[in-house]
Design a protein that fits this description.
CATH topology: TIM Barrel
Number of strands: 13
CATH class: Alpha Beta
Largest sheet: 9 strands, mixed
Low-confidence stretches: 1-13
Number of helices: 11
Helix content: 25-40%
Strand content: 15-25%
Oligomer: single chain
Distance between the termini: 32 Å
Length: 284
């Protein structure tokens, strides 16, 4: 990607997302045919903020572009503070080192992302962007009860969708929140939707717990986000969101298949594509 937004050809999609029963997702029904646009870690590869992933600066940039759906990850410090941070160690993106779980919040505060931005708490994101919705990936066992308590304390059930690659973490989160929060499918549940012959059976086998399938376009040379899977998930009352898509042509292909949302590090490109197609969701 060269930093320039590629031209896009307007296309029209008649696809309307299913009703899931969760306000986080069903708000898209206010504009039939629109697709959800997720700023992945705030839009980590946008040229203006590259190197600033999961910072207040990145999320502020996305919100100023018109993004309402922000994707982030959570870890918890040794003293129980939820951080919006992807890695389990500080080493890759900050000027400090060490496992997040072994450090206090006070110790983490001294770390800077890109040499200038502090690691934000989840509370800071909720306070800074009161109209935003957050797609949150549980990155550690300790983050599960901490996030459940956070959501309950803020009555934020409709502002979050929670995901995890760990079936164990997701099952525990669903138990703690009594399924009041939208959750995406864990890998075993995704396999059910891929392999079973009908939407009804997929929904029954997953006990109706899946509000969305959040999946890659392809994995190990195989197409995961196929038109057939999108139809099956939608018929079962679940969204399909694909991550992490930065190429405009790939965005077009997936939107033509009827996916309900895309996650991107290139917030500028996704907005341009959705706008040209008439699928950009305008905030109320």
């Amino acid at each position: 990607m060269d930093g320039h937004t590629a031209p896009v050809t307007p296309r029209t999609s008649p696809t309307v997302s299913p009703a899931t029963g969760f306000a986080f997702l069903d708000s898209v029904l206010d504009q039939p045919g629109a697709a959800l646009a997720f700023a992945h870690r705030g839009g980590a590869f946008h040229p203006e903020i590259e190197g600033m992933e999961n910072t207040l600066a990145a999320f502020r940039h996305a919100v100023e572009l018109g993004y309402e759906y922000l994707e982030t990850d959570v870890h918890v410090t040794r003293d129980g503070v939820l951080l919006a941070f992807h890695d389990d160690v500080l080493d890759r993106v900050t000027d400090r080192k060490g496992p997040v779980a072994d450090l206090t919040y006070g110790e983490v505060q001294s770390a800077l992302i890109g040499g200038r931005e502090a690691v934000p708490t989840l509370a800071a994101l909720f306070d800074e962007f009161p109209k935003a919705r957050f797609n949150i990936d549980l990155k550690s066992a300790g983050s599960v009860p901490a996030l459940a308590r956070f959501i309950e304390a803020r009555n934020a059930h409709d502002r979050v969708l929670v995901a995890s690659f760990s079936a164990t973490r997701l099952r525990e989160f669903r138990r703690l929140t009594q399924r009041r929060v939208a959750t995406s499918a864990h890998p075993l549940e995704i396999a059910v939707f891929v392999l079973v012959p009908s939407a009804r059976l997929a929904r029954r086998l997953t006990r109706g717990r899946v509000a969305a399938l959040q999946i890659p376009h392809r994995a190990r040379g195989l197409t995961v986000a196929s038109a057939r899977l999108v139809r099956r998930a939608n018929e079962a009352g679940a969204h399909v969101h694909v991550w992490t898509i930065d190429d405009p042509d790939e965005m077009q292909v997936l939107l033509d298949r009827g996916v309900d949302g895309l996650m991107t590090d290139r917030t500028d490109i996704l907005k341009a594509v959705l706008t040209a197609r008439g699928q950009w969701r305008e905030q109320a």
